[in-house]
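Here is one chain, start to finish.
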Amino acid sequence: MGGGERIRHRCEVPEEYAGMRLDQAAARLFPAYSRARLQGWIRAGELSVDGATLRPRDPVAAGALLAIDTLPEPAETWSARAGDIELVHADAQLLVINKAPGLVVHPAAGHRDDTLVNRLLAAYPELAALPRAGIIHRLDKDTSGLLVVARTLAAHNGLVSALQARDIHRQYAVLVQGQVTGGGRVDAPVGRHPRQRKLMAVVPGGKPAVTHYHLRERLSAHTLLTCVLETGRTHQIRVHMAHVRHPVVGDPQYGGRARVPAGCGPAVRDALRAFRRQALHAEKLAFTHPVDGRSLEFTAPVPADMMQLIELLREGAGQQ
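Its structure:
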């Protein structure tokens, strides 16, 4: 990585963030970076407001220009550990990966060296020089599907800006409880649950969050949806679908007890009770290549465990 390469981003503060602490506004406007990293840049004068250096706790005004201009430095000292990675695309600037369900993306308590990041660092050691090992967005442990990873700082800058501008199209296959009558849009702010701090919820003052959903297939007591993210909040689809009373099947945190349709056969009943992860798959990713400008689009098939459940529910619907 050449000494002249820098992390550079610029973004205006929208009206809804007016009066917010600078570090809070920056965390919402630059979600690819940790809040601790952003606070460090603010204190060092590398994240400025209208060209001035402020403190992390200082309020920001609507229309103020937040600008990051800094040299990259590794965020973490994560270890490399070999493991399977399903590559969908690779070039000199970026990778697209189909993440298996059950695989944690970033190291954290309880998962220090058995994550996607550890596997990436073993296969691509240069990622250690990039923020968050080049990962631009994340998927929950038990959500499967497509992720994009930057291999260079130029690609990282471009992808972070595209994510911030909502120019990365992310589409999911989602199996939900109940019969959804048609498509819709959920526009509801998402933030920490007021009592259960490990969970998210629709809460006043949460981060703006928008999910579009489209009817794909009606089953007897379930619906297969296509969901498209306009924003990318933690657990967004899971929280939003629970909010409209169609929680994701198998979701251990937001779905409640497994709902077994009346009159279903034992195969369907057993499959629903045995499915212990959210039936949520990131099936499509589309964006402009951050360096050469090509239009890229990738798809990943629904994984076998989720597909098997869908097929059983189809059979059950046909028998009623």
